[in-house]
């Protein structure tokens, strides 16, 4: 695993481990992209969110998984305040 992505590595009992697992297992291109970016922000759903029946059903389609994963990162480093302010102003 590249050092740039090491901060995302999650313990098996961690709150976003299933998201990490999904990227690792199905998002090869995303893992590579994120690993090489200097500034990136991930929006990681919780393990519980990924266990919802509708979400689990969507995750059966590998192409759809990749499309969904691409929606969970931006190529810039965002602070929590920036995220909150942009969410409110839009």
Automatic annotation (TrEMBL):
Domain FAS1: 1-90
UniProt-listed Gene3D superfamilies: FAS1 domain
Annotated protein name in UniProt: Fasciclin-1-like isoform x2 protein
Organism per entry: Lasius niger (Black garden ant)
Species classification: Eukaryota, Metazoa, Ecdysozoa, Arthropoda, Hexapoda
